[in-house]
Write a structure and sequence with these properties.
Largest sheet: none
Order of helices and strands: HHHHHHH
Strand content: under 5%
Structural class: mainly alpha
Number of helices: 7
Distance between the termini: 33 Å
Radius of gyration: 18 Å
Length: 140
């Protein structure tokens, strides 16, 4: 049964990537479809990350685990604003995201804090400002 759910996760991620690409490059209702494409892409990336953590085929390698410690695949704080802006863009064809509306995406920075911490630690080790002891950094 577990193998069935793993297959379902990877097929859902693959379908999400394909649908996201198709929505992003469509000619009709560009703004709304691009917002929906970004939302579907973020969900597909989260599903791909879930699959990668349950199987050791891809994320079992130390190099890939290192790369995905820096590149965040789960960005959930953007879901709410993207759904809101998608509905607004679907209802109003002249909808634009101005500076005042961009503040809805400020909370997305919370999703990038672990990646920024990993980059900060790596740069500190490279420039000999920090010891190569990832004890508290690794736990974070």
């Amino acid at each position: 049964m577990a193998a069935f759910f793993k297959i379902l996760m990877i097929l859902g991620a693959l379908q999400g990537f394909i649908v996201s690409g198709m929505l992003f490059f469509t000619k009709q209702n560009k703004k709304a479809n691009r917002l929906l494409a970004i939302l579907v892409l973020l969900i597909a990336m989260a599903c791909f990350n879930l699959y990668g953590n349950y199987t050791d085929y891809w994320f079992g390698s130390p190099v890939l685990r290192f790369i995905f410690a820096i590149i965040p695949l789960i960005i959930v704080m953007a879901f709410g604003p993207l759904i809101y802006f998608y509905v607004q863009a679907s209802l109003d064809p002249n909808f634009k995201i101005n500076k005042k509306l961009r503040r809805h995406f400020y909370l997305v920075l919370i999703d990038f804090v672990p990646s920024f911490t990993a980059i900060f630690f790596l740069l500190g080790v490279i420039f000999n400002q920090l010891k190569n002891n990832p004890g508290p950094w690794g736990q974070f």
